[in-house]
Amino acid sequence: MMKTSELNGKALEPTSNTPQDAPETVGSLSDDFSHALTSARVACYDDFRSAPRVTEIAPNTTAEFIESLASTIYTQAQQTGGSIPYTVIREVSENFIHARFCEIVVSIYDGGNTIRFSDQGPGIPQKEKAQMPGFSSATDPMKRYIRGVGSGLPLVKEYLSFSHGRITIEDNLRAGAVVTISVAPGQDRSPSKRHTSTPQRNDSTPRLTDREKDILRLLMQEGSLRLTDIKNDLGLSPSTAHRTLGNLEEAGLVESVGKMRCLTDFGLGIAEDLF
Predict the structure, then answer these.
(1) Residue 200 confidence (pLDDT) above 70
(2) What percent of the chain shows pLDDT beyond 70?
(3) What is the distance between the alpha carbons of residues 58 and 38, in angstroms, rounded to a whole number?
(4) Bridge partners for 54 per DSSP
(5) Comparison of pLDDT for 255 and 186, the residue scoring more
(6) Domain 191-274 is found in CATH 3.30.70.260
(7) CATH assignment of 2-182?
(8) Around Cβ 154, how many Cβ atoms within 10 Å?
(9) Is the pTM of this model over 0.90?
(10) Domain ranges across the chain
(11) What pairing do the DSSP bridges indicate for beta strands 104-109 and 40-44?
């Protein structure tokens, strides 16, 4: 459940709401990550001259809590004009499991194009390695809820590098970490805008299957995705996903940038016409 309130210039204070079905103490179940035991707060700023609009994400099971938190952040950032895709926000939100979801505050500003994620967990001592593939502090109990293979923040960094954006990791004031992600205002979410090559194509709109249209819509919404993400989001088999993406690449609608798939300029134009 979410609760929205207006803070009249007051600092965000820690919350301690605990779900009725959650364990009574954190310390007694050090390997239990089944619940987020405290609330999170999402503060959306129109500017820094007025108090933010604050939405509270109540304690819940871990899966429901992460979904509610990421969806709330994405929706509010989009409503204020931001262009950071849901998958990027979700990856950073999942990282809160390392902090046991302790004292989460998420701040949205710069018209939704900068999002700051802070907690009061153990922090991130090796900040550079945390942004490199394969480095992870996830334990087996955590991996029931996240991939835990050291891919989250590296994927965020890769996307942001394509989008003229950046990620920074800092220590919080007392304890914990602060992860800030941002993109330049007005930047298109698709990395294809950075490429100068134009694929060969006809001027007419190509004939597309429903599955191909689904992929175009997904990439238009998210900016760039790995093949695995596309396959999972649309419920496709690996061979079907490969074949369909291959058809779209041959048509000049989709291109590969590293391990990511994104729309070309032509593909973005077709998607905008269709949707």
Answers:
(1) no
(2) 80
(3) 7
(4) 5, 43
(5) 255
(6) no
(7) 3.30.565.60
(8) 17
(9) no
(10) 2-182, 191-274
(11) parallel
